[in-house]
């Protein structure tokens, strides 16, 4: 059997080798047509234009349909990306599929791909609108723009698998290729005919101030459109006899069109991209200017991409007769179709490649050991795009490297994986902001500071400014396994309005000092399990009540609680999931003398001891997609308090849209916007219908019912709480923006709520 397996492996390698030779011969057949039939060389030139360059794909579809051979391809900015990928084997349909499946809201930012990272890291990413790494005391060579472009660079690296080493773009690619960048040191044009293809593409589209420049040797490179946005002259220099050009610039803007910041910025870029433009149009044999009116360089929504590709295709079809007539000038008849095929490239993001070894560059031995153990690299004999992404994300998130790169170097029929790290971060800075009609404006700032220890240790400092003030310091150990022991200390200044049946009853202002030790903290991709102890000290500063407010005596006191908490989240989106589940459960035993609760009189004298309070809480939500846009989300939740003494500060509260938003024991309830205290035993059910409109608009309809009582056996004896609400939200890169209107039979009046930004 072993002999048979070895024979099969040998035959497989021979088959791959023959397929590769056949592919190369097939590719070269197109170029051999030049001498066989004496036809002219054809170049396709693709202009820059940011997202508008998606229209190039539609034009390429029609050129392929018409049987136009492509011997040379050149491009700038987005044109360099489309052209470079086309040159290594992505045909137009493969490009169409590739751009549609990308999450461009992630690709064009510096956010980490935390879908396969720990639950706490994913939660942090959905709290802050802005994050950036800081290298204090070191020169950051990747600085110089709002976006460092690491996700773009990583995507290019994956898409160009097999073409990531230094290459000659004329002889080593399937189609000769060149692209343009601008060196801002001397304002000169830099034409890439060789080098690392992903790096050349990244340099060509580095829009100044938006994306950080690419530094190669003594050059600082930005978007090539500043010098040559439509490089037909380069195609001519490469030997093109016929030039087909695609531009996406749109009509010149008049004074009346420059009415906002984006239009003015766009005009500045367009004016500065006129270098060589007219001269290059003059040497173009067939010019295809796509109408991109209504779209900008940043129009990366799915609807915009669909429209832009379609407009490119429609324009080329309207020029069908011109395209067919061009075939005669090329020297081929109407029935000619080039034999070039691209059978390998569409699978590049999913195919596995055999690994012969791993090389670690600019990394400490401890960092290398960490990655080998976390991903079992010594036992992993293959790699795909997903593992590449996980490795580089872990290098940045777990090991705190500013940049991380994974390169695959061919070694026979396998690859060697090169993991290359940049400078170690001195800190990671986060910023989030929000506004709502209950608390008005709030800002939250975070600073992650890695400690230089053998085992990764992270210090997390958080400051929240607003009606609720919070300052927190947390120390987390990141050993090789998924266990992350954590210790933290926090100060909260809580300013909370309490309502009774829709009427404001009183306002309470108190300080909460809190220390937590979780020696057991299993933090996985979907799963977080914690066991530990918590200390709380409540310092009550003020209580303002109305005439009808309930009378509650609040004394300064401390509590010690023993806690176990389980979190599970497999939802595909933090705020608007379409599938997956979310489950949270917690048990806490609360004391104030380590074992029991001291009972005090009005003067603060201990008059007895009672069994500590037990808290059991849970919530479980599932998402069921009904088609591509409608999702049903049933949820069960509740909080049960047991004990002779229930400290008022731990009493049940409902209201709002999120768990633990204003105070930690808060539970949401449809139709109630403010905090309402309810009985010690509370259980509820909710059903939400989520309808997506377009790519980022959501309409949410929610209905909820609940039972409450002071004792568990009395739950069914009380009136059922009912509530309904409707909401509209627009999901942006800065968090959800929307408004909610609701009604409940507890408040008996409608309420309106406005939210802007991530929840924290």
Q: Low-confidence parts lasting 5 or more residues at pLDDT below 50?
A: 1-36
Widest sheet: strand ordering? 18-19-20-21-22-23-24-25-26-29-30-34-35-36-37-38
Q: What is the number of helical segments per DSSP (H or I, 4+ residues)?
A: 16
Give the overall pLDDT as a whole number: 85
How would you describe what is shown here?
By secondary structure, the chain is α+β, with helices and mostly antiparallel strands. It is built from 16 helices and 38 strands. A hairpin with a 2-residue loop joins strand 10 and strand 11. The protein is elongated. The two termini are 61 Å apart. 36% of the residues are buried.
What is the topology?
Layout: H1 2-37, E1 42-46, H2 55-66, E2 72-76, H3 78-87, H4 92-101, H5 104-107, H6 119-125, E3 130-134, E4 145-147, H7 150-159, E5 167-168, E6 177-183, E7 188-192, E8 194-195, H8 197-204, E9 209-211, E10 214-216, E11 219-223, H9 225-228, H10 232-237, E12 242-247, H11 261-272, H12 277-282, E13 286-289, H13 302-318, H14 320-330, E14 353-361, H15 365-374, E15 382-383, H16 385-397, E16 404-411, E17 414-421, E18 427-436, E19 440-451, E20 457-465, E21 469-477, E22 486-500, E23 503-523, E24 527-545, E25 557-569, E26 580-591, E27 596-600, E28 606-611, E29 613-626, E30 630-642, E31 653-654, E32 666-667, E33 675-677, E34 681-693, E35 697-709, E36 721-732, E37 735-744, E38 751-756
Parallel strand pairs: 1-2, 1-12, 2-6, 4-9, 12-13, 14-17, 22-33, 31-32
Antiparallel strand pairs: 3-18, 5-8, 6-7, 6-11, 10-11, 14-15, 16-17, 18-19, 18-38, 19-20, 20-21, 21-22, 22-23, 23-24, 24-25, 25-26, 26-29, 27-28, 29-30, 30-34, 31-33, 34-35, 35-36, 36-37, 37-38
Helix pairs in contact: 2-4, 2-13, 3-8, 7-8
């Amino acid at each position: 059997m072993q002999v048979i397996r070895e024979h099969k492996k040998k035959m497989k390698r021979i088959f791959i080798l023959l397929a590769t030779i056949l592919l190369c011969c097939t590719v070269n057949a197109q170029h051999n047509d030049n001498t066989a039939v004496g036809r002219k060389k054809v170049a396709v030139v693709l202009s820059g234009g940011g997202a508008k360059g998606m229209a190039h794909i539609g034009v390429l579809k029609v050129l392929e349909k018409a049987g136009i051979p492509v011997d040379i391809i050149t491009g700038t900015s987005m044109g360099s990306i489309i052209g470079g990928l086309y040159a290594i084997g992505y045909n137009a349909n493969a490009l169409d599929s590739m751009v549609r499946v990308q999450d461009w809201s992630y690709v064009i930012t510096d956010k980490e791909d935390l879908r396969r990272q720990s639950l706490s890291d994913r939660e942090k990413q959905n709290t802050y609108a802005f994050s950036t790494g800081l290298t204090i005391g070191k020169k950051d060579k990747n600085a110089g723009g709002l976006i460092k472009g690491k996700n773009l660079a990583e995507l290019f690296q994956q898409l160009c698998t097999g073409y990531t080493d230094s290459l000659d773009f004329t002889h080593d690619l399937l189609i000769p290729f060149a692209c343009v960048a601008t060196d801002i040191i001397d304002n000169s044009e830099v034409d890439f005919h060789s080098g690392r293809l992903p790096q050349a593409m990244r340099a060509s589209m580095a829009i100044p101030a938006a994306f950080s420049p690419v530094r190669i040797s003594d050059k600082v490179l930005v978007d090539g459109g500043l010098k040559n946005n439509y490089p037909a002259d380069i195609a001519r220099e490469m030997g093109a006899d016929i030039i087909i050009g695609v531009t996406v610039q749109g009509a010149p803007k008049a004074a009346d069109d420059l009415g906002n910041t984006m239009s003015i910025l766009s005009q500045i870029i367009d004016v500065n991209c006129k270098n060589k433009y007219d001269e290059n149009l003059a040497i173009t044999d067939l010019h295809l200017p796509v109408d991109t009116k209504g779209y900008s360089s940043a129009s990366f929504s799915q609807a915009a991409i669909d429209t832009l590709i379609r407009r490119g295709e429609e324009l080329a079809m309207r020029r069908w007769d011109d395209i067919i007539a061009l075939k005669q000038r090329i020297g081929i008849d109407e029935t000619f179709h080039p034999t070039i095929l691209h059978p390998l490239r569409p699978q590049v993001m999913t195919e596995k490649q055999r690994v012969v070894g791993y090389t670690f560059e600019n990394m400490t031995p401890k960092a290398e050991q960490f990655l080998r153990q976390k991903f079992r690299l010594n036992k992993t004999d293959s790699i795909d795009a997903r593992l590449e992404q996980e490795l580089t994300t872990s290098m940045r998130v777990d090991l705190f490297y500013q940049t991380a790169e994974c390169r695959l170097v061919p070694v026979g029929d396998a690859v060697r994986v090169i993991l290359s790290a940049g400078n170690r971060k001195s800190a990671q800075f986060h910023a989030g902001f929000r506004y709502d009609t209950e608390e008005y404006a709030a800002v939250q700032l975070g600073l992650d500071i890695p400690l230089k220890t053998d085992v990764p240790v992270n210090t997390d400092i958080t400051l929240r400014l607003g009606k609720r003030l919070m300052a927190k310091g947390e120390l987390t150990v990141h050993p090789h396994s998924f266990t992350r022991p954590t210790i933290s200390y926090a100060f909260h200044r809580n300013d909370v309005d309490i309502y009774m049946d829709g009427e404001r009853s009183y306002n309470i202002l108190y300080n909460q000092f809190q220390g937590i030790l979780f020696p057991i903290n299993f933090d996985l991709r979907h799963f977080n399990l914690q066991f530990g102890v918590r200390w709380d000290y409540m310092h009550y500063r003020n209580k303002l009540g109305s005439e009808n407010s309930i009378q509650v005596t609040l004394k300064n006191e401390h509590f010690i609680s023993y806690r176990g908490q389980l979190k599970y989240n497999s939802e595909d989106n933090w705020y608007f999931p379409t599938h997956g589940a979310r489950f949270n459960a917690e048990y806490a035993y609360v004391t104030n003398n380590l074992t029991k609760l001291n009972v005090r009189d009005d003067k603060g004298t201990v008059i007895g001891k009672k069994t500590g309070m037990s808290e059991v809480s849970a919530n479980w939500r599932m998402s069921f997609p009904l088609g591509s846009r409608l999702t049903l989300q049933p949820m069960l939740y509740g909080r049960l308090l047991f004990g002779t003494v229930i400290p008022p500060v731990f009493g049940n509260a409902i209201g709002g849209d999120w768990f633990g938003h204003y105070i930690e024991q808060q539970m949401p309830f449809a139709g109630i916007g403010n905090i309402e205290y309810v009985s010690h035993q509370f259980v509820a059910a909710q059903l939400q219908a989520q309808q997506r409109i377009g790519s980022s608009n959501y309409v949410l309809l929610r209905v909820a019912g609940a039972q409450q009582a002071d004792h568990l056996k009395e739950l069914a004896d009380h009136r059922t709480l009912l509530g309904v609400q409707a909401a509209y939200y627009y999901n942006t890169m800065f968090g959800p923006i929307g408004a909610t209107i609701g009604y409940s039979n507890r408040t008996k009046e409608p309420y309106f709520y406005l939210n802007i930004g991530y929840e924290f």
